[in-house]
């Protein structure tokens, strides 16, 4: 397969940087698959902002964009390069802010004629972290995002932030699908949320915790790494989903589940087909909540307590309840 690869170097260290809309040069190229690569050098204490004219959708490694148009973003600080991610068109990611320089590539198929890159570059003051990714979620939607370098390791002792712009009349929930942890010598890997109106900002969670749900409006989520064991560093990585829904009519209706008099019993409320089947992204999300902000697709209740649960679900017919009870057998002489 013959491909045209075009490099453009932008020096934003020794002189003024040509910020603004990024155009595709030279025009009139042969009808070949094309890769445009922009290598932007910038001071490591300064920030760069990539703003997209049409929002993007992050994809996993090995996944292809339906129209074969993809953007790849790499952050460059000193000699270290970090893969922020690969993105398709038609998504929610509107801006990516980076610390230091950036290598940006745009892949175009041979049969697509475009004259503009679809993004512009602006300089910003230091963001004091690896990157900030902004997603604008205007209606009911579901998006998948992942940590830089995924499925490889997030850089040691780094910090990054996702900013989610959500209408105040909508509700957002965060679900972790895949994660692993480093072997930390100092500090602790964690996720921090800044939720407007919360009395405990930032709200700190372990990656193993159930993440916040039923969040009203916009919020920020940050991933913090640690100082890793030099001999056995391990891998910090994260793949997660953000689901935005209209408030459910019965979200404030609680249901009492009384297991206080039971022993050796568990009750699991789950989606149809669990645990053999994983719901498709396109399927309506059904969440079970043990309090207004702690919700998940599966909830297991242990005996010896009373629970008040509620549902973020348009159709409860998709849910099932499984009860298991341990029975001890006594041998009679």
TrEMBL record:
The keyword Lipid metabolism does not apply. InterPro entries: CDCP1, CDCP1_CUB_3rd_6th, CUB_CDCP1_2nd_5th, CUB_CDCP1_4th, Sperma_CUB_dom_sf. Residues 256-330 form the CDCP1 fourth CUB domain. Residues 21-123 form the CDCP1 second and fifth CUB domain. Residues 1-15 form the signal peptide. Residues 129-234 form the CDCP1 third and sixth CUB domain. Keywords: Signal. This is CUB domain-containing protein. The lineage of its organism: Eukaryota, Metazoa, Chordata, Craniata, Vertebrata.
